[in-house]
Design a protein that fits this description.
six-stranded mixed β-sheet
Length: 636
């Protein structure tokens, strides 16, 4: 604890806001009662016990051992979510993070207990032990057969640091509920059910880690854990963890959690697992971990248990089982298994929150992809047609490669700015998506079939398709696919002319509009592409050579991206987000439009700077206002 406090002091003071935690509640004082009412309405097999925050089965078989548990609320679906055939008979719900009263616990015991008796299972917290324990004594005084089992599965603190309280009860208690509930449903005696519950509790180990602590309703927002840090070995009520550590990659975090659970160090050994041991793994969401994070954690936990620790993961459960309100973190629990315990875990259970399947896959190896028709190049850069002689010279191919690289590098460099703009008016993925496409182009471009223009564009299309996701990726792929088709239909015998290039560019821009459903002025990439296409076509029709026509297209793209049809200066707003106009006026250029302008500008710049010989002609000598260049020097 001292080392934790010292580390916390070094990390800086906790950030406490003067703003209360926001929540979708009517009144924090009524939250638990209204939660129970909603739960009962959602599940006809459950009922609320009048006068108490107690959830019970609607139909009880009192000839079998009853199972009661509970504790403070805020851990949902624990505990009321586990009431049902095969698990709990009743759950007693206290206020958020507060033990329920002895009277409520006694009411639950009296309602569910028949001749077979009742097993009460609680986590090892002082309030729960006292209130549930006293209720058990009252029930015994009334002539009922009652047993109490306390679960303490925490592996974060060394033995010498436990004091008189002992190990805390964490998410592993859920597996005790399942084993004991299955034993009771099978008709076991109270002694048998209690013995299995105690044996299961003794075979458990749990460690939790969190990046952000929880925020109880109505309290001031406090961020105890500094950015870039995490707490390891914390409880489920927002209490500090056993240690403060620097945030690490998921695999390293999981490895440390497993090391703590199976440690054999003196004073820290709770669940020694010899190689070949069978275990159940519980990956528990403490409240705000995303499904992506949960799967990444489960992936590493299963892999490491098999490959590093040499144990057999016979059953695995992943989900939100015992939360801590909105805590951003996870816990891992391991349960030692034998045949009888596996049978208890696999036994039917009615609660909807209990996972339907628990047997892990042997591995995550992918299936082989389907065989594709000849010519469908989706797994490697498309090659040139071996039966057709090269169309571009070596010099032209080198110039093309430089231009492609310049465009890709420009888009990659724009990532921070594009991300910033898109975060203001979109989902924030524009920069990363475009950067991924640029990186794919840079990785593949040396393999493009640059000797054949249509094949080279097909290579670009391949890179974009494999590297970019989302809407951007498919729109660029549509554009490039249409450009490739137009060049292929032109049956080129030499480098494409300005008119042929302009026609291909127009075909791509029109395809984006046709499939994407947008038009010029809708604040999309078409605000750069369509003006560029029009300028490209006009310049080519006026006799401009390729470089001159492309320069005209670049200027039009930049102007289209900067202006647009809306009066707001450079607002990155699609029409369905027009309500944001005043919020971001003048501050957010259109991400895709500016990206299009950027890569076109970069391509033009590199062609002007490298290996291009300008003819000594007067400025403005063509009708498009761009400097004319002799055809002979600029065929490439």
């Amino acid at each position: 604890r001292i080392s934790y406090l010292l580390a916390a002091r070094a990390a800086g003071p906790a950030m406490v806001s003067d703003v209360a935690v926001q929540s979708i509640l009517n009144n924090t004082a009524d939250a638990v009662e209204e939660m129970i009412e909603g739960l009962v309405l959602l599940n006809p097999s459950l009922k609320r016990l009048g006068g108490h925050n107690v959830v019970v089965r609607a139909s009880l078989d009192r000839s079998k051992v009853a199972l009661v548990s509970g504790g403070g609320s805020g851990h949902e679906p624990s505990h009321a979510g586990w009431v049902g055939e095969g698990m709990l008979s009743a759950a007693v719900c206290g206020a958020v993070f507060a033990s329920p009263s002895t009277a409520a616990v006694l009411a639950a015991i009296l309602h569910v207990t028949g001749p077979a008796g009742c097993l009460v299972v609680v986590k090892n917290y002082t309030g729960d032990r006292l209130n549930f324990g006293l209720a058990c004594e009252h029930a015994k005084a009334l002539g009922l057969s009652v047993e109490l089992v306390v679960v303490g599965d925490d592996c974060a603190l060394p033995h010498r640091g436990l004091g008189i309280a002992g190990r805390r009860g964490l998410a592993g208690a859920l597996l005790v509920h399942k084993v004991a509930g299955a034993a009771a449903a099978a008709g076991g005696s109270l002694e048998k059910v209690a013995a299995e519950a105690r044996s299961t509790a003794a075979s458990l180990g749990t460690v939790g880690v969190a990046l952000k602590t929880c925020h109880p309703f109505g309290t001031l927002v406090e961020e105890r854990i500094a950015a870039g840090s995490m707490e390891v070995g914390l409880g489920i009520h927002g209490e500090p963890g056993a240690s403060l550590a620097r945030l690490a990659p998921a695999d390293a975090i999981v490895d440390e959690m497993l090391r703590m659970i199976v440690s054999t160090e003196e004073g820290c050994s709770y669940l020694a697992l010899p190689r070949g041991e069978r275990v159940a793994l519980l990956v528990n969401n403490l409240g705000a971990a995303t499904p992506i994070e949960m799967c990444v954690v489960a992936r590493r936990a299963i892999t490491a248990l098999r490959s590093v620790h040499g144990v057999c993961v016979s059953r695995v459960y992943s989900g939100a089982f015992m939360t801590s309100l909105d805590m951003s973190g996870v816990s891992l629990s391991l349960l030692r298994l034998d045949d009888e315990r596996i049978a208890r875990l696999d036994a039917p259970a009615a609660p909807l929150a209990w996972p339907a399947s628990a047997t892990p896959a042997a591995d995550a190896a992918p299936l082989p992809p389907p065989e594709l028709p000849s010519g469908a190049q989706t797994r490697h850069v498309p090659p040139a047609d071996a039966t057709t002689p090269p169309i571009l010279s070596s010099e032209q191919q080198a110039a093309t490669l430089r231009a492609v690289r310049a465009a890709a590098e420009a888009v990659c460099a724009l990532e921070p700015l594009l991300t910033e703009w898109d975060q203001k008016v979109g989902d924030g993925d524009c920069g990363a998506t475009l950067q991924a496409g640029g990186r794919a182009v840079l990785a593949d471009c040396a393999s493009y079939a640059l000797s054949h223009p249509a094949a080279a564009v097909a290579g670009l299309c391949y890179s974009v398709s494999r590297g970019m996701g989302g809407t951007s990726g498919v729109l660029y792929a549509i554009f490039l696919s249409s450009v490739r088709a137009e060049l292929a239909n032109a049956s080129l015998a030499a480098a494409p002319t300005s008119a042929q290039m302009a026609a291909a560019f127009c075909a791509g821009a029109q395809a984006v509009g046709r499939y994407g459903g947008a038009s010029e002025g809708d604040r999309t990439m078409l605000d750069a592409l369509l003006p560029a296409a029009a300028a490209f076509t006009a310049a080519a029709a006026a006799g401009a050579v390729a470089v001159g026509a492309a320069a005209a297209a670049v200027g039009a793209a930049a102007a289209g991206s900067a202006g647009g049809a809306f009066p707001v200066n450079r607002g990155a707003l699609p029409v369905n987000l027009s309500w944001l106009t005043t919020l971001h006026a003048g501050s957010t250029p259109r991400g895709l439009g500016d990206a299009c302008a950027a890569y076109q500008t970069s391509t033009a710049e590199v062609t002007r700077r490298k290996n291009w010989r300008r003819a000594p002609v007067a400025r403005g000598s063509d009708s498009c206002g761009v400097e004319s260049v002799s055809q002979k020097s600029c065929d490439a």
